[in-house]
Structures are given as structure tokens and as C-alpha cells.
Amino acid sequence: MKLLHPQNPTGNQIDVILIVGMGGVGKTTLAQLIYNDKRVEEWFDLKAWVCVSEEFDAYRVTKTILDEITSSCDDGKNLNQLQLKLKEKLLGKKFLFVLDDVWHKRYDVWEALKSPFTSGAKHSKIIVTTRDENVASIMRNVPTYHLNILSDDDCWRLFAKHAFVNTCPSMHPNLKVIGEAIAKRCKGLPLAAKTLGGLLRCKLDADEWNKILHSNLWDIPDEAGTILPALRLSYYYLPSHLKRCFAYCSIFPKDYEFKKEELIRLWMAEGLLQFPKENGNEEERGNEYFKDLKLRSFFQQLSGNKSCFVMHDLISDLAKSISGEFFCRLEGDGGSCEITKKTRHLSNVQEKYDVLKKFETLSKAKSLRTFLTLESSPPSCYVTSQIMHDLIVKFRRLRVLSLAKYCNITELPEEIDNLKHLRYLNLSQTSIERLPNSLSTLYNLQTLTLFYCKCLVELPKDVGRLINLQHLNIRETKLEMMPQGMDKLKELRTLTDFVLSKQTGSSINELGKLQHLCGRLAISGLQNVVCAKDAKDANLKDKMNLKELELIWNEDDRIDDDDSKRDEEVLEQLEPHTNLEHLVISFYCGTRFPEWVGRSSFSNVVSLCLTDCYYCPSLPPLGQLSSLKSLSISGFLKVVTVGDEFYGHCDASRKPFGSLEILRFEDMPEWEEWFSWRDEAFFLLQELSIRNCPELTRCLPEHLPSLTKVVIENCGKLGGLLPKAPSIFQLELERCDALQLEPLPCGLRELRIEDSNVNDSKLKKMMQRCTRLEKLTMRDCYNLRSIAEGSLPNTLKQLNIDSCRFLDYSKIILYTSLESLDIVGRRCYALKSFPLASFPMLNRVSIKGCEDLKSIGASEGPHRQHLASLNSLEICDCPNLISFQIEEGLSATNLTSLDFYSCVNLKSMPEHMQSLFPSLVHLSIDDCPEIESFPREGLPSKLNRIYISRSDKLIAGMMRREWSLQTLPSLTRFSIYHAREMESFPDEHLLPSSLTSLVIWGLPNLKLLSGKGFQHLMSLRELIIGSCPTLQSISANMLPNSVSYISIRNCPLLRKSCEKEKVFQVIEMFYQSLDSIDLKNLQNLEKAEFFKLLRRISRVWTLEISILDVAWSSLVLPPKDLKTSNAGNSCLQNKAHGDASVVSVESCVSIIQRLAVAS
Fold first, then answer.
1. Separation between Cα atoms, residue 876 and residue 1058, nearest integer Å
2. Which residue segment(s) compose the domain that 1091 sits in?
């Protein structure tokens, strides 16, 4: 922990700590101990844990970190989008990230991954665990902690901890002797000691222990050298039912994160949880099996996500070794195993485009029982439709079928009823709109998962025939009603949503017969319940295993008394069981809440959200909920006071809101007064947020000893002092000038003031006691004129100033502790120059909209040597900036990102960029028309991405080869936009061979793409061309075979310039490597060309075409799943052809109505 302590600075922006040791020695366990240490919560603002494994995927790692620190799931379209979001979230925050099990030593991937990390606060930490000490070479000089094996004594103690439960080893001296001998054979590896200890857990028979000690399995050689004898033993002596369940886990790749519930449902589907009927249900048995394997250390719980589990690498190797030919994994990194006629269970690690070649040997597995897609890094994936057809038509023994996350799947074929044995079907995150009614004949189906099927509008009308269905997940769909007969699904345990409609469909009373429901249930459309008795018949009160309940009335114009009374009666009858933990009530139109809402018997409720209950004049007695931790109240338009009714019947022995940690009030326009309950309520409250309550005048509760975060926005009449809370460290204030803020709490670390009348003297008084402030944001503070010396504490690290148009920035240079600085001007005329080198600690600078800014540079002064801290520099909308100069010798050695936008008078970049910015990775210049060239010495060699737009003089210099682009070995992405003078591109050997992506957009005079300029680009995968209205020719032999994606948009003159050069000839020539084609607004393409294309694109998964201004009288051999959009009166039909999965034909203005479609 010394290396993590904030009082142990290293001078680095980010400190990387390497833990090195052999497999099973305890690297992950040590990292978990550090990660879960309480002191980490005090020292760091954010933390995240990522299992990296053998494939170091920057996209997946970035996404996992972002999801963890935001507690949400973010499906950014590409790495750059995710990194921009992550950069924003990390800004000024001190973070701890753990990258567990790193294998790769690729410097370029590490550089790409760490790019957004630099926006975090100094002394942020990254812990890396690895078996390979050479990993340190890509991270440069980092402290390395070598984790050695355990001594025999320590190994025995760890073994004994897992083997003896509720008993002391000394009470069993005979077992102690045997156990010590077993521990010695574990050779100091904690994983071996834990698994063998777990195997003998609670077994006190010496014969059992001797079997392990004297087993021949200790001496069996392992040819691959990856399976520890102790692990082989731990499997061999498992009960047979656990052996089967564990072997099934070989279907998961290394470090794959799985949820307990999902694994148990897969076991169920495969018939691995057989049991006598009188001994409970399958899932209970599955939970027992899972617990047993976890206790034996076959599964490990993730530190970052407690709902997920992984298998240690060595355990994963064990599972693979014992599963043999029956299990197979298809992986894109070359780690796939061979499919044979013995293969029964197949998992497919998704790639962006899962092509037919990947599955070409699938036909060998004629008895396939499992086809399971496993999520990889791409945000959306595509699969050849031939695979879905084959799986459903040819593999009739399937029990498990998962096609989740293939966004080009829009329907299931009627032949789905071929899969009579199917028990598990997952279509999550597909674009499916409807399910065929034939699916209702799959009587063995147990699990149907349709999560995030955003296009799904209805379920099969006979879904009630699925009598064995236990789990139906329809969260985040667009279902408008539930089909009749839902009450027949008597085995149902998971029903995430129940949608009520005015149309004929399931009534709410059908829920009454679903006695086994557990987990989460959201009931929407409650305004369509006509009779309160139907709500009572839903019998929620007896559903003791429901943990989350959402009751939703759709927002509409219902305002009459009858509607209000009916809502009250319905809610009265929807009382849940007292085991409930989470409750949401939305758009309720009653004028009062029933007595059960807030009743003290609901002692398990930990979160409660009441939103948009417009007509309730008072709040229910929620203070009586003894376990309530999070409370959100919003949209109560009629509430005027909050007082005793809110706290309920409490006394000195039972104080109201005794467990509450988060309290939010929002959008309550009539709320005027908040009466406190003595000084003893909200004793544990940590976060208080009040937004958009403009009439609130009475003071906030005064005594909140645990409060750490306060947000008050648009509460202009709220007066008095802030609550007395010594621990407040984050304060956000917007349009609340009546509050008395002088002085602010002494422990404050983050402060945001927005749209405030704060002036110079008031700011200084506010800051008198803020001796720990690290982040300050001021926006729209028009009365602020200057930040005088002493106004801000020396601890300030991050300063954001937005639209404080009269502020004099000259004194900012006094605050030399700054690490991040954002200045957004918006008609700001006060900032004339920016002395970059006056900030010794500054690592990030963003200056926008400062119209009078004329120069940026390293001025004379005592801190001229400190530009090494600078990592990111962004200058936007500064029209009078003419000079950006950094003197040689003041190099910004850590600068990785440089952006200039709309600096129309900037004439040049600094000389000697190679030596000044040796670490530069990203360079973006947009709308800087006066920059003529880059330095003669060339650009930094580590540049990975270049974006140039609306900078004609600079682009002209590129064409004269003044940039020396071809000498940049790391350049992979090059984008050129809005170059008015360019007529052909690219010249031969202008671009480096390392390029993977090329974007050419908005070149109004571009006529020709030169084939010679492309021939040496053997790494190019993506070519995007757009808005080039005069482009007439693409050389048919110009592209390398590596290209997998072509997009051509808004190039209306692109047509044949001679008999041998046609745009479709290019596509035909490279159709073997293309995954996706996107052609839009190409008015002059000929019908014959299109027909020829359709015959050749048999392996292209996505084809998007629009604005085809041709007169077609027939359409021959269309690809599968031909989609039409705004196609006039055209009548297009879907017919099978090849493997193309998505064809989008948009705005085809001249297509003749009668189209003959070949069958």
C-alpha cells in the first residue's frame, strides 16, 4: 500500500505498478486485497478492474473501465468515442485501475489504451498483474513487485483454512500430518493449496486425505506443462455431477466473465442438473453446484463486479484439457479448436463480421447441442445469414442457441420449430421485430432472452403454450402488449416486464397464477387497468421472491377525478411482499398514496424512486423504511411542504431515515418549505441533491454529519446556510444566490458555481477556509472580474472557467499547482496571451472561444523547464491567434494530443516538433487556413492519428511532400476533409504502409483516386469516401486485398470514365475480402453494374445503397434480407442469395414499381 499512498509521490502523471509471478502464485488475489482495501476509497475518486487476458483489446478494456466508473453500459461505436467519454469522466479525478493478467507486449496497444488516462489527476495508479516481466518494457521504468511462492508452512496454513471449517486442525493431529504432506506437494502455489483444501472441505476421514496424498495423478506428466497436478487431482476427486458442470465451463475463453444465473440456466438446458422432483427445483440444485465449485476455488468472484465470476487461467486450462473433442471454441485470434463429428458444444467469440469462412467446418458437428455466442469487443456485430439458416434447419438437436448481439438479425425463420429439443434461446441486442408463432411449439424451452431488442414490438400470440418456460427477459424492448395466455406459463420465474394495453391482450390478473416469479418485474400501462379487483388478483403480495418492482402509468392527459380515484384503488391492490428491496412508481395520477407505501414492515427496501406523481400534494411516510439507502423524488408538481408526514411515526429510539445515504429532489415547482425532524434524521446521508425547486425557501436540514456531496440547482429562493457537515468534499451550485456561502466548508475538494452573481470579494470570502480544494468550475459568473492572489487555495489542481466574459485572466499564472485548465470564452476579450510554461504541473489545457487571444507559448519566467508535464493541448475558436511557439529546449516530452480548431489566423506550428513533442500520438488541425506547412524536420515519429480539415495551404504542403508522411512508422489513421484545391489523391508513396484507415471527405474538386498511391498500403482495412461531387473515377486495380470496408457517399458523378474503370469493378475485384459496403447518393450507377454486383457479393454482410437514379425494370438475385426504406412505390421482396445479411436500399427515387424478383 506504500506505493499507492498519496504521500508517496513519484512525479509521474500516472504511476504503473507491476506485479509479476508464475501462474497460480496469487497475483490476482494480492491485487484484489489492494483493490478492496478501505483506504483505496479514501485515496482515489474512481476505481475499476479489468481482466485483460491473452488478447490485449484496447476497445474492450476501455469499455469495461468506462462501464465500471459510470455504473452503466456504454456501447460506443468505436474506440475513439469511448476514449473521449472516458477522458471526460477521468478529468481531474484520481483513479486506481487494475489490469489483471496482461500477456501482450505491444507498445502501440498500450499507448492507445492509456491516452485518456492522462486527463486524470496526478498520482493516479494502474496495477498490472502478469506472468511476464517483459510486459514492463512497454510501460517503461515502473516499479515491479515479484510475488514468490509460499513457504511450506504458509502453504499448509492456507490449505488448512480451506479444508477445516468450524474446527481446528490441532484437534485432528492425524489429518494435520497428512495435510502438511499434501501442502508440501502444492509447491508453494496458493491456487493449488486452495483447490485441494476445498476438495477436502469438511471431510474428516483420514482415508480420503490419504487418497489425495498417494494418488498416482501427482506423477502423470503434462505434455503442455500447463496443468498443475494438484488441479488435476482436485478435478479427479470431484463428484460426477460437479465434473459434468465444470467440464461444460470449458466452453468459455480465458478470463471470460460470466454470471452465476446464466451459467446455471445453461447447465439446466443441457440436462446437467438432474434431481428427484421432491427435492426442490433445478435452479436450487444449480445454485448448490455453483456454490460447491466456488468453494473449491474453481470459480472466482470479480472484484470490480460482484455479480460476475471468472475462472483462473490454470483452471481454464484444466477445463479445456478434460473436455476433449466434445467442446470447441471459435476465436478470432487463431486460438480456435478443430470442429469434428464429436463436437457437441460450440462457443463463438464474436468478431465485427462473423464470416462464412469462420464456420466452414461447422457441418461436421452433426450432433451439435450448443451454439453459444460470447460477447467480444465490437459494439455491434454481423453474422452471415447462412449460419442462422443452417443452425435452425440442419442442427435439430440443439438445446442451446445464442445469437445475441448480431444487429443484422431482424427475424427468425418459421423453421425454428425444427428445434424440438431447444431449451435456451438468446436473441438479445438483435434487431428482431417479431418472433414467428411457430416458436410457440418449442415446448421444452426454458429460457428466452430478448434483452435490448429495441425493434421488438410483439411476442408470439401463442406464447402461453411454452409450458416449461422459466425465464423470459424482455427488458428494453418496444412491446406494446402481452399476448393472452401468459397465465399458462406457470413455471415462469423470471418475467422482467409485463405490458398492459387497451387492446386485447393479457390482463394484469394473469400475473396471479405466476406464483414463482422472482427477481425483477416492471408493470407498465397501468392506466389501462379498468378494475381494481384485477390488480388485486395479480397477487403481488404473495410473490415473496420478487426483489425489484416497477409500477408505471404511461404519461398522458388523464386529469379527471375518475382516473385519479381508479389509480389510487389500483395502487392500493398492488401491494408487494415485504421482501421487496427496490421500488419504482412512475406517472401515478392519484392524489394520495396507499398506506403500504412507506409502511415500516417493508424493512428490506433499500432504494425507492417516486417520479412524476403530478397530483399528490404530499409525500408518503418514507422515513419509516429502516433499510432505505437511496431515495429519489421528482415531478411532484403539487407538493408545497415537506414535513412530519414525510418522516412518519418515528421516535428517539427509531429515528427517521436511519440508513439513508442518497436523497434527491427534482422538478417540484411549488415546493416552498422543508421542515426538519429535530436534528437526528438523515444521520448517514452522504449525497443531497435538489434541482429545479425554484420556490423552496426554508433552510435545509442543518445537522448532516455524514454528508459528502451537495448539489443545488435552480433554487433561487433557497436561503440560509449549507448543512453543518464537516465531511462535505463536493459542492455544485447553480442559480441559487440566496444561499449563504461565506465561508465554504473547509474540507471541500470539488466546487462548481454556475449562473451566479458571485464577485471578486465574495469569491475570496467563500474560499477563506477551503484549504483542500482541488477542482473549481465557474460558469456564467458575469460579475467576476479577477482572481486575485490568495483568492484560491494553492491546492487547486483543476480549474474550469466557462463564459465568465469579464474575467481578467492575468492572475491565473499565480496558481502554479494547476494540473488541468479549461477556459471557454464565448465573447471573451480579456485573455490576450497564454504563457504555457508558467504552470509547472499543468498536464492538460483547453482554450475555446477567446477572441482576443493572440499568442500561446513559453514565456520567460522561473518555470520554463516544466513543460514536460503537458499531455494534452486543445485550442478552438480563437480567430486572432497568430502565434504558437515553444522555444527549443522546453520540450513537452509527454504531450500526446494536439488539437487546433478554427484558428483562422494561426500561421505556423512550432519548429522542431520532433524533438519538442516526441510522444505526440494524435494531431488534429481544422479550419486553420493560414498554416502553410509543418516544420522542415518533419512530424513526431509516434504519430498514430492525423486529422486535417479546411486548411488548404497546409494540405498543399502535404502534396508537395513537405510533411514526410511516408516516414511515420506508427501512423494508422489519416483523415482529410474539405480540401478545396485537391484534384487527385493520393500520390505514389505519399502515405505510410502502416495505414489501416483512410477517410477522404468533402473534396469538391477531387476527380481521381490514384491507384498507385494505394498499392503499397498493405495494412489498409477501411476506406471512406464522401461528398466528392466531381469524383468520376476509381481505379479498378487500386485497392490492396486487406481492405474489408468500403463506404462511398454523395459522389453523384462517380461513373465509368472508360470501359475498364468502374466503381463496381473495384468491389467485384475485392469482394473476397470485403465485409461491408456502403454506397449512398450515387445517382448515375447503371442497372447492369448493380446486377453484376449482386451476383458477386456473396460474402458481404452489409450493403447499404441509396439514391440510385436509374430506371430498373427488374431486380435479379437480391441478397438475403433486402431492406427497403423510403423507396417510393417499389415492391421489393426478400429472397435468399449468397450470404449477404443486410442490404439497405434507401430513397431509390426512380425505381419502377413492377420489379420482377427471381425465385
1. 45
2. 1087-1159
